[in-house]
Write a structure and sequence with these properties.
The protein is an all-alpha fold. The protein contains 13 helices and no strands. Helix 3 packs across helix 8, helix 4 runs antiparallel to helix 11 and helix 9 packs across helix 11. The protein is elongated, with a radius of gyration of 22 Å. The two termini are about 45 Å apart. The C terminus is likely disordered.
Length: about 280
């Protein structure tokens, strides 16, 4: 039903054809050339590449954590389905309210802060605090905050890319962007199970090797190992956000990258001015 609603909305909305840019003309060619063009476009712009690598780290760590949330809750509540459903519902409510908040507020004025700050908030909520907690209410609060954080992250990031990449090449560039960002998701899902079942969970069973070190933090028994792994993932995400903010090409991306309106090509047959060079290229 939701997909039909989304497609139906597109059918009744007028979508104007984007103005042709010089960048778009340079990227034209056969299907292989146009497929490779998205990678070339991103690599040539350090700020976009930095943002993309930030999302790669965010998706890797975030997917690891989210894959483990449900089994951790079930393991620590004696397979209480109602507890799991309640926590997941809190996350869904956070996502809806995050969308309404972003619509009314418009997001942070400095959008890079929305991306990097949201990444740190996500690592803190569904990483560190969730892993340390054994309380249903606190788990629900963590996923509620995560729902809001993810909305702000995605909205801020999308606004940057849509304002900095010319509309007539956005299809090619955004397809590459999604590929780079999301290729880590299946890898994280594949890694989550073996890490939990073969390393973290056995080490934190009653009498496990890690209990003397981490038992006071996450306890021991079913779910303790996964909780510790989630904490580690959250810390990695916070560190990743700090590293991203420390890189000038990422922190100042909105200033370094010119808006795409500045790169509209002149009509066919008109004399071309000197080719513009991206500020961060």
């Amino acid at each position: 039903i939701t997909f039909l609603f989304a497609i139906g909305a597109l059918l009744i909305v007028f979508i104007p054809q984007p103005a042709r840019t010089e960048e778009g003309r340079r990227g034209q060619g056969n299907i292989l050339r146009e497929a490779a063009y998205g990678f070339q476009y991103i690599v040539q712009r350090p700020s976009l590449l930095g943002l993309q690598l930030t999302f790669l780290v965010m998706n890797l760590t975030g997917t690891l954590a989210m894959t483990l949330l449900a089994p951790t809750i079930l393991a620590r509540t004696g397979n209480d389905e109602l507890a799991l459903a309640s926590v997941q519902s809190a996350g869904a409510v956070g996502g809806v309210l995050g969308g309404l908040l972003l619509t009314a507020w418009g997001g942070p004025k400095r959008r890079v802060l929305g991306v990097v700050g949201g990444m740190a908030l996500s690592g803190l909520s569904v990483g560190v605090i969730f892993g340390l907690s054994r309380n249903l209410v606190l788990w629900g609060a963590c996923l509620f905050v995560e729902g809001i954080a993810v909305t702000i992250i995605n909205g801020s990031n999308q606004a940057i890319w849509q304002s900095k990449v010319a509309p007539d090449v956005q299809g090619r560039v955004f397809a590459t962007r999604r590929l780079i960002a999301q290729v880590t998701a299946p890898l994280a899902m594949l890694a989550a199970g073996p890490l939990a079942d073969r390393l973290f969970e056995p080490a934190l069973r009653e009498g496990g090797a890690w209990v003397p070190v981490f038992g006071s933090v996450v306890g021991s028994g079913p779910g303790a190992g996964m909780a510790l792994l989630i904490i580690c993932v959250g810390i990695a995400q916070i560190v990743g956000a700090a590293v991203a903010w420390s890189v000038p090409a990422i922190r100042n991306a909105e200033d370094l990258l010119p808006d795409h309106e500045a790169h509209i090509a002149p009509p066919a047959g008109a004399e071309l001015a000197a080719e513009p060079v991206p500020a961060d290229g």
